[in-house]
Amino acid sequence: MLGLTSDENVKKRLNDGYPLLWTIPREGTGYDGTFAMILKGTKKLDAGKKIIDLLGAPEFSELMAAIGYVTPRPAPNALYGKTLPKYIKLDLGKASDEKPKNNDIWKQKLRTDFK
Q1: Region of residue 63 (left: phi > 0; alpha: psi -120 to 50; beta: else)
Q2: Phi, psi (5° rounding) for residue 101?
Q3: Threshold 0.90, pTM exceeds
Q4: Domain count, the chain
């Protein structure tokens, strides 16, 4: 059986004794990020700002890294330790800048209903 999941989901299952073989997909395999935003026109702007401030705090990065997430701020990671493997390149600014181009590539190669 084959399953694709976020790597932060693997460590606990390995530690629990599940007979898993954990491999890293080849370059080009898709992924997603976990993002937060404040929607324009929200009636709870102050609460939204507090939540965004919390999510951007170093302590939150440490909490998320402790369960295996790769965070934008450096933090010791439960899966990878203090140094991320070379194949993990986190550049959210570049990803944002390249989103339109990458969406077009995705549509051309994978989405038949866009052709």
Answers
A1: alpha
A2: -65, -45
A3: no
A4: 1
